[in-house]
Design a protein that fits this description.
Number of helices: 5
Oligomer: single chain
Distance between the termini: 38 Å
Strand order of the largest sheet: 16-17-24-23-19-20
CATH architecture of the largest domain: Alpha-Beta Complex
Largest sheet: 6 strands, mixed
Number of domains: 2
CATH superfamily of the largest domain: Oxidoreductase, molybdopterin-binding domain
Order of helices and strands: EEHEEHEEHEEHEEEEHEEEEEEEEEEEE
CATH topology of the largest domain: Sulfite Oxidase, Chain A, domain 2
Length: about 350
Amino acid sequence: MTETDTTWQGITRDELGQAARNHGMHLEGLRYDVTPVGMHYLVIHFDIPAAQEATWTVAVDGLVERPLTLSMDDLRSRRSVTRPVTMECAGNGRALMPPRAESQPWLLEAVGNSEWTGTPLRPLIEEAGVRPEAIELVFTGADHGIQGEVEQDYQWGFSLADVLRDDVLLAYELNGIPLPPQHGYPVRLLVPDWYGMCSVKWLRRITAVAEPFDGFQLSSYRLRQDPDGPGEPVTKKAVRALMVPPGSTDFPARNRFVDAGPGHLSGRAWSGWGHIDRVEISIDGGRTWSDAELGPEPASPSSWRAWSFDWIATVGEHELLVRATDRAGNVQPLDAPWNHGGFMNNAVQRVDVLVR
């Protein structure tokens, strides 16, 4: 390959750079109720900004009666809440949705379930006093760059109803330690149930506005069949189940090998639409399905739920499938509708195994 080559086995140099810079959760991490910090998936759109907690502030401004400038000491002095939250990238599964959008080439590993600690957003906004004409809040991070030929700060906007919820936090700890730099140190927005790109990292400003915000990121994260069409916005996480890789693997292809006899499958399932009520397993490529056993219902519907399944592995090739159903009645599809961004591909997981 020369320096001028733009592709290698269908993957562009830009995508290789993203894949080396970002990382997914090893699917073995599905064994843990709480994902270790180093295993949690990670996406960084621009650069990790330089940050010092001692001098960091978050402004609350725009259409508010009492603008605020909050230091980290101010935020830490307020009521503290810890929430287990499953966070997932909207592009999870993108590489499995051909023709593939050129972006971070995720397979299925862009997820993690960790304990986030911070102070609730709503009391801060109530203290600032949103004026009657305000309809949205815009959250601005310190990460700055160019995307789609637009120079920008990373921003996301929410309607007041969508973000002034009891479970939305300004988070400053992850699994009991200060946020690592790559996860938004010293403070980030945390919006449970929505895809991860909404939870703005390195939070600098919260601005109340009177018009719907249509920043670059919001216009990019849309489900478009027509590249020039308006599309539908990407918001809450679609229902999904994943399994711990069964048996053993080879390198580098990561084919799966299982010994014949009694076997055990396990994993996690989650949804942005409420608790998981059912997980099903197929050991024959989707021709027949059996119910898995669900673990205890988590205290929060924003946290994933364990499942397990015992099977008798017979010699030969098998395609294992897993799918979940949430309390709202959403069921994982065998195939998800294609879109230009490769977003929200929650098609059932398929794992080929050779039973020996």
